[in-house]
Amino acid sequence: MSTRAVLEVIALDVEDAVAAQAGGADRLELVTDMASDGLTPPVAAFAGIRAAVDISLRVMLRLGDGFAAGDVEALVRAAGELRAAGAEEFVLGFLGEDGGPDLDAVERLAGELDGCRWTFHRAIDRAADRDALRKQLAELPGLDTYLTAGSPDGVDDGLPTLVAEAARRGEPGYTQRLMAGGGLRLDHVPRLRAAGVDAFHIGAAARTGDWTTPVSAEAVRSWRTALDA
Fold it and tell me: Which Pfam families would you find in this protein's record (predicted)?
């Protein structure tokens, strides 16, 4: 069985996507507007990227800054339009006012996705109770990954949580893949790999400057090399 770790890279456009694939990314997270921490991209942007690369694409379902779902009907429409354009994998995650998962919104979207694979993103790092959230979402169709830094402040603070959760893989609520991301650095990789973490998510680390600079194939390749070491 292969032990190759999954490397997911945030892509904003075709240029990002092509560079990420050239550098060895296994999967892309497609978003727009990183000033709002990543929102749902236009259907045309998805279609252009899908035509340009042949690796997996996970498309963000999020219409506003923060972790509240907002207009659920608009989210459902966006999901339907993206699916009609060929999207098969998604990223989402919403919290209620109590800090628990917004089950109405998440279940509605999971139903609309109808078995498509999806990631619950870093909303888990803002949850009132991470363990409870995992158990509440455990049986939702399509959920196969949690993207998490282990802390709202990033992997530096969340590393012990990530290691502890990796050790629980296979327990109820912990059958989904743990994908580390959020302030992730190359020096975090050895400890996370030793703990059994086999999926990594990078955004700014795939670039040589800020979000106005494109993904660098060379930067992505450095991550691919580190994960494969």
Answer: CutC
CA dihedral (61, 65, 69, 73) in degrees, to 10, reads: -60
Fold adopted by 6-118+185-228: TIM Barrel (3.20.20)
pLDDT in tens, 97-109: 999 999 999 999 9
pLDDT-derived band at 2 (thresholds 50, 70, 90) equals low
Supply 135's token pair. Answer: 């158990």
- pTM, two decimal places: 0.96
Q: Which pLDDT does position 3 carry in this prediction? A: 77
211 is written with which tokens? 């979000």
Token pair belonging to 102: 């917004």
Note the pLDDT tens digit of each residue in 28-51.
999 999 999 999 999 999 999 999
Q: Annotate 187-223 with b (16+ C-beta within 10 A) or e (fewer).
A: ebbeebbebebbbbbbbebbbeeeeeebbbbebbebb
